[in-house]
Design brief:
Largest interface: A-B, 35 and 32 residues
Oligomer: heterodimer
Distance between the termini of chain B: 44 Å
Largest sheet of chain B: 4 strands, antiparallel
Order of helices and strands of chain A: EHEHHEHEHEEHHEHHEEEEEEEEHEE
Strand order of the largest sheet of chain A: 7-5-6-4-1-2-3-16-17
Structural class of chain A: alpha+beta
Number of strands of chain B: 4
Radius of gyration of chain B: 19 Å
Number of strands of chain A: 17
Number of helices of chain A: 10
Chain lengths: 361, 276
């Protein structure tokens, strides 16, 4: 049995597009779809109830609802869904991903021959947005204790689990068949808006230093700030005609932080921004020029990021840097089992009222 | 069969767009008048660029890139920039990037990479288009009118290559425009099929002087015909070529292609053909 596992928090519009197609293109008694509704507030439960009665009765779709989540946690939600899957092969299918016609059979055939395969959409040659696609035996998934729940926001959890599965002895197989890599294109807002850090950030500002160096300042809703000087590694040496750069792996970082993140508190009083922390003390005057707001001190001019897509970039940049560090730590310390408990919580199956406890303590 | 595995030097020359034509003339003159460069250089792709500053990008394919042959091109361009400095644009608001733009009148390297080089065969379109850019913008500024005119000429050549009759051409224009409309005027991603097409290798000769522009448009027509016959999918071939053009023309909005198609469709020539 193969279980496709999809988690969704407020992604009804994507599920409406992908789930009917995925079910229709992978109909088999040996294939099950597990949909974990991670406390969506967009009527996903109603949509499933009204449209998939037949599939729920015949068992091809199992719907679970987890009602305790206030924010989306990518690793925890996926771990829950994988725990709930009854297949001996488990396959993560993001809410915006199409499985592709016959993908389930394709995976089963491959894994019939090699039990220890780890199929991934990462680094696929088509560069399609299918990096979340991961198929592995459930026993191997449990052995590595699932996705690392220390990853708080977006980025690198897929790379990390593939690394740990490899260290555990699994052979990586990149999915390169174009028909198995389709996904809905969408902006980062859908991806990030339910995550903790996204909800914490009030505003982002940039102080420009030169074409390869800038300082980022995040003002958080709780009165805290974080800031760092960011270096663009791809352009810092641009005066030198080194040999051409080849294709770089997605895990190599284009950006790095100089002297770490600084933290402190902020407050605006009398149109002046006060930043105070152990490593900095700064007072900036507010300025508005050509509809662009900035805070200016003797040493910095922080321009407000007003374009929504750019603000989301800054948010995912922060979480990706943090997650990348965790991933590299797991890799260098050869951490295979990273969670003491994972995917725990109480869920409700197929609109029933009887709670099901997931616990792997 | 040619491959594109030889190393390229990726040079970016930052310069004010209003004076790109002067810079293009200098590049053309220096490259094609110096025997040392012609001996060393085996390919040249030109990209007009407005990302992180206004400038012209050159992908230079050398026989031996490690020998420092790039200096043969860098030095005269550098002299041109010193002798004819252009004004840097002030910061635009609202801010659109996390780093400042590169300043004008500077030469930088590796701000783009191998990904800007198309697979074998389709690389021919990049070579042909580069030669067209050198000649077409030799003596007048790269402005909206100039770009629209160039795109229109290119569309004529591509359509002549892909469509066998005038009547079919008119029908094809309508279908292509509908495809763009259905994708909110974007070039449909699922119609772009970037695969090696070795049948087009014949256009990838050694570095040649750009020559006559009419002949270059004829080459675009011929290459378009070969590509469409090879793929068997006219729309996919058409949108693949548009995608290549877009990459070399500072990622111009798809609206320019749409409007130029509309202009052609409405033109006397296609109307009359359709009414026969």
């Amino acid at each position: 049995m193969l279980s496709f596992c999809t988690v969704a928090m407020n992604r009804r519009s994507h599920i409406e597009e992908t789930l009917p197609v995925n079910l229709a293109q992978n109909r088999s008694k040996s294939i099950q779809f597990v949909l974990l509704d991670y406390n969506s507030q967009d009527g996903l439960d109603q949509y499933i109830k009204e449209n998939f009665r037949e599939q729920i009765i015949d068992g091809s779709l199992v719907y679970y609802k987890y009602t305790s989540a206030s924010r989306f946690h990518r690793s925890h939600s996926r771990n829950m869904a994988f725990h709930l899957a009854t297949g001996d092969i488990v396959c993560n299918l993001d809410a915006d991903n199409f499985a592709g016609e016959g993908f389930g059979k394709y995976v089963q055939d491959l894994m019939d021959h090699k039990k220890n395969l780890c199929l991934t959409g990462l680094e696929n040659q088509w560069r399609h947005d299918a990096s979340g696609k991961l198929c592995v035996s459930k026993s191997n998934f449990l052995e590595v204790t699932g996705y690392d729940e220390n990853f708080a926001g977006y980025g690198f959890e897929d790379y990390d689990i593939v690394n740990r599965l490899q260290m555990h002895g699994c052979e990586t197989f990149t999915i390169n068949k174009e028909e198995f890599l389709h996904a809905i294109s969408h902006d980062d807002l859908d991806r990030l808006c339910n995550e903790e850090f996204c909800q914490k950030v009030r505003d982002v500002y940039v102080h420009f230093i030169d074409e390869s160096t800038s300082k980022l300042l995040y003002l958080l809703n709780d009165g805290q700030f974080i800031s760092a000087t960011v270096i663009n590694a791809y352009t810092i040496e641009s005066r030198k005609p080194r040999p051409a750069i080849g294709k770089t792996s997605s895990i190599s970082s284009q950006f790095y932080i100089k002297k770490g993140w600084k933290k402190g508190e902020w407050v605006i009083e009398n149109d002046r921004l006060h930043l105070s922390g152990t490593q900095c003390m700064e007072v900036c005057d507010i300025q508005v020029k050509n509809s662009q707001c900035s805070f200016r001190s003797d040493t910095h001019e922080y321009f407000q990021v007003t374009l929504p897509a750019m603000k989301l970039d800054a948010i995912s940049f922060y979480t990706q840097l943090i997650n990348r560090k965790i991933m590299l730590g797991n890799l260098s310390n050869k951490n295979i089992r990273v969670n003491k408990v994972f995917g725990n919580g109480t869920v409700y199956k197929n609109f029933q009222h009887k709670p099901i406890e997931i616990s792997n303590l | 069969m040619k491959t594109n595995t030889e190393a390229f030097i990726f040079m970016s020359v930052f310069y004010q767009q209003g004076k790109w034509h002067s810079l293009l003339s200098t590049i053309q003159r220096e490259i094609f008048s110096q025997p040392e460069i012609r001996n060393e250089l085996t390919g040249l792709i030109i990209y007009l660029n407005r990302h992180r500053g206004s400038g012209i990008r050159l992908a230079l394919k050398f026989k031996k890139p490690a020998t420092g042959a790039y200096k043969l091109i860098e030095d005269p361009i550098h002299s041109f920039l010193i002798g004819n400095p252009s004004i840097s644009q002030s910061r635009r608001f609202p801010i659109t990037g996390f780093f400042t733009d590169f300043p004008n009148n500077e030469i930088r390297y590796n701000l783009f990479n191998q990904r800007a080089i198309m697979p074998a065969g389709l690389y021919s379109f990049q070579i042909l288009l580069s030669n067209i850019l050198l000649i077409f913008f030799e003596d007048h500024p790269v402005d909206d009118d100039g770009v629209f005119t160039l795109v229109t000429y290119l569309q004529i050549a591509i359509l002549d290559g892909i469509c066998t009759t005038e009547e079919f051409k008119r029908e094809f224009c309508l279908i292509a425009m509908n495809q763009m409309k259905n994708n909110n005027k974007l070039i449909p991603a699922d119609m772009i099929d970037i695969q090696p097409v070795h049948l087009l290798d014949e256009f990838e000769g050694d570095l040649m002087e750009p020559g006559d522009i009419d002949e270059l448009f004829e080459d675009i027509e011929k290459a378009s015909r070969i590509l469409s016959m090879h793929t068997g999918n006219l729309l996919s071939s058409y949108f693949t070529i548009l995608h290549i053009i877009q990459l070399q023309l500072f990622r111009i909005p798809a609206e320019v292609f749409f409007d130029s198609l509309d202009h052609l469709r409405m033109s006397h020539q296609y109307e009359m053909a359709g009414d026969n």
